[in-house]
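Summary for the steering committee. The consortium agreed at its last meeting that each partner would contribute one worked example illustrating the joint modelling workflow. Our contribution is presented below. We chose a case with several input lines so that the handling of multiple components could be demonstrated. No manual editing was applied between input and output; the record is shown as generated.
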Amino acid sequence: MSSETTTSPRHRSLEELTAEARNLLAKLEPRRTSLTAKERLAIPPQEMPSQDPITRRGNMNEVALGYTAEQARVEAMRCLGCRNAPCVRGCPVRIRIPDFIAATAAGDFASAIRIIKENSLLPAVCGRVCPQETQCQKECTVGRSLKNVDKAVMIGRLERFVADWERENGLQKPPAVKPETGRKVAVVGSGPAGITCAADVRREGHAVTMFEALHKTGGVMVYGIPEFRLPKKIVENEISILSAMGVKIVTDFVVGRTRPLMDLMKKDGYNAVFVGSGAGLPKFMEIEGENLVGVFS
Ligand code: SF4
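What follows is the complete predicted structure of the assembly.
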């Protein structure tokens, strides 16, 4: 019989974390709406389940596995529902964070994702890769009260949970689009900026064409962030919502070479052009060996 270790002794499994959250939820649920601030501050931050280190060293799959429903509800109950909502000020797209968290705490995940989608078309992506610790979570009253940003309400993990819940349950719907205005907008670049712009402009009823220089859409999300951090299928899924809204996507088209930008406006009838071409070159650390095979930046 092999004596090889197959799990890491210090790693806490998904099952273990879920069981712990389930017990906590049973105690908290009856008093969910009447918990005091002190009681909420005493709820432990929920740990993100992850692949066992011994397993993950042999694959490139996503490391973080995402909260379970029990964990998400317990984590959401840590939120104080601050009237002034400093977390919203820290969010670049001003998601109604306390409202989506309150819906999550109540187990109303459909309302939670609907609230997020009022402002963001990329919740599964942003929940995974936004630097929440320098944005919404940095401002969170819970983190400030506990004098540790790592103990703030885990807003990003909750966003990821409800986005994944919606997708995995086949409940995704494209946002409503207003009646056609007859105006045309070109969006150059299909990274996060281009996608956000395309979605917002399309919602207003304008015709949108998104031009991508490379052969896949997603920009930095596809070409810059590795699979173990942000799976490509998550990006593809969120971009598919744009197509469902009626955004036309053109790949292998370099605006400025394939067609001059001014031709788009003067000859092709575009009323406006948004350029979101991104920062195409990586920043290297300039240390010996960083270009060797097997070294990931
Ligand atoms: S600042 Fe933190 S505790 Fe307050 S509403 Fe936002 S997430 Fe909740």
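The mean pLDDT is 93. The chain has two domains: 14-168, 184-275.
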